[in-house]
């Protein structure tokens, strides 16, 4: 069985690892001690140097911490290994991996377009974006995602990914965080449209602030979309109140 190192044992790591266990011998690391949780999931807990040296290496850390991590692990990464990130944005992580990882290491950017909430009933037929960067193995990884995990694989460039996700993710998470902080109520007189808002609140409003900041701050196109949305809100407000 192939060995997979997994750095970042947050909510997404704990969620996705059971799907990967049948195919990999997994060793995980996090800056926090989650060794008990790792044991409960049936995977190994290892030191950063050990985990970084596996044949396959997944980086599941917020983008704002990725550069420091890459500096720490660049001398431990095994030659001809495959390193892939799981970040919610792609331009910056790909640039950082190219900058810090040795040229004899394969690199692929990935973004699962789901999480513990949207994947709570299973991940089959959900979307994952793959950005081949510097690799001869992207075909194998795409086949694994599609044939074994039954995901719908979308191959994109990092630039196209971030342009689209500024709407798909940055805008929806911005709205989700707002309605969550408003704490909009679940009432008997709700309409289907209002239920959509409640669903957004439930699915997105509880995400960690690290994830929220990654989506809103690290996507180079997110600010323009947020600003446009806020501008349109003020225009509507002016029309109502004139």
Automatic annotation (TrEMBL):
PROSITE patterns: PDH_ADH. It holds the Pfam family TYRAAT1_C. Keywords: Oxidoreductase. GO terms for biological process: tyrosine biosynthetic process. Residues 2-242 form the Prephenate/arogenate dehydrogenase domain. GO terms for molecular function: NAD+ binding; prephenate dehydrogenase (NAD+) activity; prephenate dehydrogenase (NADP+) activity. SUPFAM superfamilies: 6-phosphogluconate dehydrogenase C-terminal domain-like (SSF48179), NAD(P)-binding Rossmann-fold domains (SSF51735). InterPro entries: 6-PGluconate_DH-like_C_sf, NAD(P)-bd_dom_sf, PDH_N, Preph/Arog_dehydrog, Prephen_DH, TYRAAT2_C. Gene3D superfamilies: 6-phosphogluconate dehydrogenase C-terminal like domain, NAD(P)-binding Rossmann-like Domain. This is Prephenate dehydrogenase.
